[in-house]
Amino acid sequence: MDHAPGDWFQDSYALTSLALAPSTRSKLQRAGVHSARDVLRISGNSPSTLARECALTLDEANDALKAARFNGEGIALRGARSAAELLREERARWSVFTFCEALDDALGGGAASGEITELCGCPGIGKTQMAMQLSVSAQTPRAFGGLGGEAVYVDTEGSFTAERAMDMAEALAEHLGRCAKRCEDEDARREMEAALETCAPEAMLRGIHLFRCHEVTELLAALETLGEFIAERPKVRLVVIDSVAFHFRQDFQDMALRTTILSKMTNRLMSIATTQQVAVVTVNQVTVKPQRDGSARLVPALGESYAHACTTRVILSWENDERVAFVTKSPRLPQARARYAVTAGGIRDVRGSKRAAP
Amino acid sequence: MSASRRTLDRLPAVDQTLAAKLESRGCRTAEDALYRAPLDVVELADVSMHRARQFIISVAKAVAPTPTTALDALRRSQYVPLVIEDVDKALGGGLRVGAVTEVVGAAGAGKTQLCLAACASAAAPARVGGRDGGVIYVDAERKFSGARLAEIAREKFPGAFEDEESVHALARRVHVVTPTSLTDLNKRLDALEEAIIDHKVRLVIIDSIAHLARAEFGREKVVQRQSALGAVASTLKRHAEKHALAVLAVNQVTTKIGTFARHASDGGDDVADESSGITAALGTKWAHCVNTRIALEVLEDRRALKIVKSPLAPLTSFEYRVDASGIRVSGKSDAKDVRASEANVHSTIGK
């Protein structure tokens, strides 16, 4: 039997551990089939043979064969990759920048595609501001080294403020206008000026797709449909969930159920991030955790097991009347800190700041 | 009806044979279906994985909110002015429709005065610059005064409320309810929609949320209190967005009791500013729920109105005094003052 290396052991899986409809499974069992290997052997890669041998319909046999291969493709298309996939890989990885250089440096360029970046911090620290800034800067045209993309903003708290997004879009358009004027290269400048016409502030707001979710069910439903939504809009580069914590902190009495649903949601987010190659940014709240010595600390909400869900975790906090971002968890970056400011035009560097030593 | 409670057989474009099978096995609502993994659906309904996935996606499509763009949101945005010129300007027009604004302050700082001003502005006729709508005033502390409302309205809109008749017209639009507990409030809020439509409500005022929360849940019941508060916030926001109304919630202050807030990443030794002994009540969870927070602070010789959390406004501070028109702003104070107190409100924990 022809197999990709690494899944040899799956052959010996019992029939009961395959994702089969019970009726199909019982028909197979009646025909004396016990394991995935039996299914593959009897069928010999032909659903019709399996159907005849085990008294299944052709569709059931096809499903059974797929299940026995653990949803692997048949030999005919094994290892084949679509041109679309290759194209996507060629575009390689990229990041949505935050517009605060110090923070972008700390994050290795910004919120990276194919990853989940989590922002957490106390109320009023600028989590939503940061999320809105990212949705606006994802639309920086390619001529300026941006992504020329669109953004999906899943708003669970009702905190997205269109006026504020407009401020940021206007500031960005103005900034790009200045860049274009300063550009020395004649060709590049012409390209920039052409791009400027397409990125008026209004057009940028049109490129932010808002999903307002009032409860967990709506949030799950929105995430479930998001794959298709993004497939229809290939320009989407960023998905923001602001915030993951809000509903999960109040809609659940049953903590075990909460953990299950939470992990289901993070699985969805991860698959959106990797299969659609978008950057996913989640916003989390903080909660008070009592310490043994009687004091209390502010820690990210939703518990310890959820902490594994994000690829990169950024904690926003106050330090001597200044806003500081800490990169506390990342598989590819060192721990780092960066000062940032929330200005009228959005997230920016603290004026006159130097990058702090990590 | 909320999406979670919609039954599968009432959803459009959902595989009805499968829905019927699932229903007979106890999976009745969209919530039930979406909480389950596709594999559970395979087991329950005896279908292939592929069909189960299709089914879940079709349920998700039926209950998922329809996306809009930020531009639509911008065109829809409205405000209920507080009719305090400088403050309205800083807030982008006043109390944002579709969001929760909180005013926090010590006793006697003027929180109720601010509420009455907002009340007058929402109920005043459009020709004088009001919002021409109904107001629901949740008066838990029984501090609402009709006479004061009339006085503030007269000062805020000179000439518009000279005769008794116009004052009565204004007062008739304000509906005062006095719930005794947070649970009671929650019940009323759940059924608010009818009242909102009947009276064209543009503003809901809760004076005060802290009083209700503290009265019903003692210190040992913090968990229940937080979940009840979360439910209140969620319901308020749902109504606010669906029916384009503004929400103003009053919060009290509390004295910190030897509790220092430290951030998880700060390491062990630095402790948040403990110079001020006062902080907003109800904790961080409630603070996360409000969109805009206005703090009224009484210092020895002066009073300051501060915008400490806002998605729109930078941190601003105004000096104010309380007079016949409610709160009157007399000038901006310096920015450093604001930052210090902002750090206070946000990084310290009320208990």
TrEMBL record, chain A:
Domain (RecA family profile) ranges: 92-286
GO molecular function, one term: four-way junction DNA binding
GO CC entries: Rad51B-Rad51C-Rad51D-XRCC2 complex; Rad51C-XRCC3 complex; replication fork
Biological process annotations from GO: meiotic DNA recombinase assembly; reciprocal meiotic recombination
Top-rank taxon, per record: Eukaryota
Keyword Nucleotide-binding: yes
Species name: Ostreococcus lucimarinus (strain CCE9901)
Primary localization: nucleus
Pfam families: Rad51 (PF08423)
The keyword ATP-binding is annotated on this UniProt entry: yes
Keywords tagged on the record: ATP-binding, DNA damage, DNA repair, Nucleotide-binding, Nucleus
InterPro entries membership: DNA_recomb/repair_RecA-like, HR_Repair_Mediator, P-loop_NTPase, Rad51_C, RecA_ATP-bd
Subcellular localization(s) per the UniProt record: Nucleus
Name by which UniProt lists this protein: DNA repair protein RAD51 homolog 3
From TrEMBL, chain B:
ATP-binding among keywords: yes
Domain RecA family profile, residue spans: 76-253
InterPro entries hit by this protein: AAA+_ATPase (IPR003593), DNA_recomb/repair_RecA-like (IPR016467), P-loop_NTPase (IPR027417), Rad51_C (IPR013632), RAD51B (IPR030548), RecA_ATP-bd (IPR020588)
An annotated GO cellular component: Rad51B-Rad51C-Rad51D-XRCC2 complex
Coiled coil feature spans: none
This protein's record includes keyword ATP-binding: yes
A Pfam family reported for this protein in Swiss-Prot or TrEMBL: Rad51
Keywords of this entry: ATP-binding, Nucleotide-binding
Protein's GO biological process: double-strand break repair via homologous recombination
An example molecular function term from Gene Ontology annotations: ATP-dependent DNA damage sensor activity
Domain of life: Eukaryota
UniProt xrefs under PANTHER family: DNA REPAIR PROTEIN RAD51 HOMOLOG 2
Identification of the protein by name: RecA family profile 1 domain-containing protein
Organism of this sequence: Ostreococcus lucimarinus (strain CCE9901)
